[in-house]
Fold this sequence. Notes:
By secondary structure, the chain is mainly β. It has no helices and 4 strands. The chain has strands spanning 5-13, 16-24, 28-31, 37-40. It is flat. The mean pLDDT is 90.
Amino acid sequence: MQEQDTTVFWEPYEKGYASRLTQPFGGKVHVPAPFDCELDTSDFEPAPAQGD
């Protein structure tokens, strides 16, 4: 949230994930199967500044 990005990970394997997609807040991000949907990030807000 500090970076104001959305990251989607898929294709898990023993060391993590084989694929990922990072996009800034404000658009739609496709979430692959088994969910296979669009995540609308237009209402996402930045994280509060530290100390707030």
